[in-house]
Amino acid sequence: MKNHGCKNVFTGNFNTKDAKKSIKVSDVFLEEILEIWAKVDLEQLPSLEHFQEQNLWHNSSIRIEKKPIFFKDWCSKGSTKVKHLQKPECNSYFSLKDLQLKYDLNVAPLRFYGLMSAVKALGNSSSSK
Predict the structure, then answer these.
(1) How far is the first Cα of the chain from the last one, in angstroms, to the nearest whole number?
(2) pLDDT digits over 90-119, tens only?
(3) For residue 125, how many other CB atoms are within 10 A of its CB?
């Protein structure tokens, strides 16, 4: 499970289909636990606070190229939730440069803008409910 972020798998928001495709394990017991966990429906985001607390990784609502994502390097630096992409004082998003400085990451622009686009799409869909 280390390659998938250990506990981050269980704090994400995978649906069953994505969990089976994204996390490959040889342990039958662990595979069953993942399937059961993925059945928990976390799609409703009733408030801005719920949106900001959404996990970035292993979240079926945040997708790049139609797949949930996991960036191990970002996760290991502490960037795990939507709020970690935002400036705390004004809820606006970090620029690429600001994010690189804050988390000491070397981030490819395409990866950054892909994630930001997916996160903003989730925020827009949750605010329209």
Answers:
(1) 35
(2) 779 999 999 999 999 999 999 999 999 999
(3) 13
Chain centre to alpha carbon of residue 128 = 20
Report how far residue 126's alpha carbon sits from residue 105's, in angstroms, rounded to the nearest whole number: 29
Give per-residue burial for 2-29: e unless 16+ CB within 10 Å, then b: eebbeebbbbbbbbeebbeebbeeeeee
Q: What is the pTM of this model?
A: 0.66
The helix/strand count (H/E) of the chain reads as 7, 2
Nearest to 41 by CA among 14, 7, 5, 22: 14
- Rounded Cα distance, 119 and 62, in Å: 6
Q: Which residue matches tokens 């998003």?
A: 93
DSSP 21-80: HH---S-HHHHHHHHHHHTS------SHHHHHT-BSTTBTTSEETTEE---HHHHHTT--
